[in-house]
Design brief:
Largest sheet: 9 strands, mixed
Strand content: 25-35%
Bound molecules: 4'-deoxy-4'-aminopyridoxal-5'-phosphate
Order of helices and strands: EEHEEHHEEHEHEEEEHEEEEH
CATH class of the largest domain: Alpha Beta
Number of helices: 7
Radius of gyration: 19 Å
CATH topology of the largest domain: D-amino Acid Aminotransferase, Chain A, domain 2
Shape: globular
């Protein structure tokens, strides 16, 4: 991803893609003082753009730093990047971090806060799983307690166990992994929230120790519009056996049907297909 033509917005201006570099003593690189967003632009419009920019500010606040650009400035910068690269349909990645500067220990209050925004063309996150249902592994890593880490920030540090889980899953031929939380309840996938269907009703984990995704909230709204009952609650591992359908939600994942989690199988049923197709229409509307 580093050596190519294109433009990246960095600290207020567009730079050449291949020159968008940071110093090796960047605090964020050593201590994970970094937060980011993943967004999708459809036909020239970023879906829920403002919510993503607001979440970026919120995440930075959770990590004790302030982004030196307002939400409005971030909104304008995202459009500038898309225009500069000629993208109408693209994934947008904003990232903010503590840079290199006065401090090279754990503390970093005197180091500058940096912001960069890149965009690239990124198709279906799970490839053809979109049609036939993704196969998920069950991760050995547990989502940590909100008393252990700022669980609701979209912060780089939270992704260490996600990368480990996803590598283990891919080594077993799976597209992703489902993670339990520190109490043993079903939590989410490594970069997407999870939903289950049983007897025409929907069950999804209460996001009390992980990201309450923007896609998740959109899909819950779509289900409520259809008068489908949605239970946001703690889900026990034993319950997986009784669920009939399952899907993942996320900006990159969009709505992806799940066919298998470990030894449990799910059908790509009518409600899953309806929600996946309606989400596609909504984001392009
Ligand atoms: N959980 C994790 C760990 C994620 O990385 C993402 C993707 N941002 C989500 C959930 C879904 O969030 P959203 O729908 O806001 O993209």
């Amino acid at each position: 991803y580093d050596d190519r033509d294109g433009k990246i917005w960095m600290d207020g201006k567009l730079v050449e893609w291949r020159d968008a570099n940071v110093h090796i003593l960047t605090h964020g690189l050593h201590y994970a003082s970094s937060v980011f967003e993943g967004e999708r632009c459809y036909n020239g419009k970023i879906f829920e753009s403002r919510k993503h920019s607001e979440r970026l500010h919120y995440s930075a606040g959770q990590l004790d730093f302030e982004i030196p650009y307002t939400v409005d400035e971030i909104e304008a910068a995202k459009m500038e990047v898309l225009r500069a690269n000629g993208f109408e349909n693209a994934y947008v990645r904003a990232v903010a971090w503590r840079g290199a500067g006065e401090d090279m220990g754990v503390a970093s209050a005197r180091n500058p806060v940096r912001l960069a925004i890149a965009a690239w063309e990124w198709g279906a996150y799970y490839g053809d799983a979109k049609m036939k249902g993704a196969k998920l592994d069950i991760s050995k890593w547990k989502r940590p307690s909100p008393e252990t880490i700022p669980s609701h920030a979209k912060a780089a540090g939270l992704y260490m166990i996600c990368t480990l889980s996803k590598h283990a899953a891919e080594a077993k031929g799976c597209s992703d992994a489902m993670m339990f939380d520190y109490r043993g309840y079903v939590a989410e996938a490594t970069g997407a929230n999870i939903f289950f269907v049983k007897d025409g009703e929907v069950h999804t984990p209460d996001p009390d120790c992980f990201l309450n995704g923007i896609t998740r909230q959109t899909v819950i709204g779509m289900l409520k519009d259809r008068q489908v009952k949605v239970h946001e609650r703690h889900i026990m591992p034993e319950e997986l056996e009784g669920f009939e359908q399952c899907w993942l939600t996320g900006t990159a994942a969009e709505v992806t049907p799940v066919g298998q989690i470990g030894d449990y199988n799910f059908e790509v049923g009518a409600l899953t297909r309806d929600i996946a197709e309606s989400y596609e229409k909504l984001v392009r509307a």
